[in-house]
Write a structure and sequence with these properties.
85% of the residues lie in helices and 0% in strands. The protein is an all-alpha fold.
Length: 181
């Protein structure tokens, strides 16, 4: 074999191994997005459970505020539907975008409910209600932290996706940009 043939073979091997390395790096970063979403999803489910308990406890006592309860229940159903769609591919921008919108609606409805409870001193002073509100606030802080971890994983993935020369192969491998929450 000629020296030029050896050089060409070495160059081809180098390109091949670089391509495999780029693929593995992008897969590892995409898997990190999935792991971060799994943690976020745990807190979404916990928030849903606490909201259900809180609604079951206070809705019968405040029939005049049924619109607030209905808004939260509706936002919660939308959030759960969007989370279900995002579980399969948390790096896909469309379902995660829907989850972000549903999360904003849920946050607004939850804020209305907590504001309502702040104005109902006798109801808020009950230990069961106070305990659920405290638990809900804790879950919201944990969810906010896990959301930040998810968004950091997305940012790392997107950064790697746009770095040259990896971006040359990203389309070939079928990698697309992920969306933050």
């Amino acid at each position: 074999m000629t020296p030029w043939g050896m050089l060409g073979l070495a160059g081809a091997a180098l390109l091949f191994f670089w391509g495999v390395g780029a693929y593995n790096r992008l897969m590892a970063l995409r898997n990190a997005i999935g792991e971060a979403f799994a943690q976020f999803d745990v807190h979404l489910r916990a928030r849903s459970e606490v909201c259900d308990k809180l609604l079951a406890l206070i809705a019968p006592r405040l029939p005049s505020e049924q619109a607030t309860f209905d808004a939260l229940a509706s936002a919660q159903a939308e959030s759960q539907t969007a989370a279900q769609a995002s579980r399969a591919k948390p790096w896909s921008p469309d379902p995660v975008g829907g989850l972000a919108v549903a999360g904003a609606l849920h946050a607004a409805a939850l804020t209305r409910l907590l504001s309502l409870l702040d104005h109902q001193a006798e109801l808020r002073s009950e230990p069961a209600v106070d305990e659920l509100v405290s638990e809900l606030k804790l879950v919201e802080r944990q969810r906010a932290f896990s959301r930040q971890v998810f968004n950091q994983a997305v940012a790392q993935y997107n950064e790697a996706l746009h770095q040259f020369p990896t971006r040359v192969l990203a389309n070939l491998y079928g990698f697309g940009e992920a969306r933050s929450l």
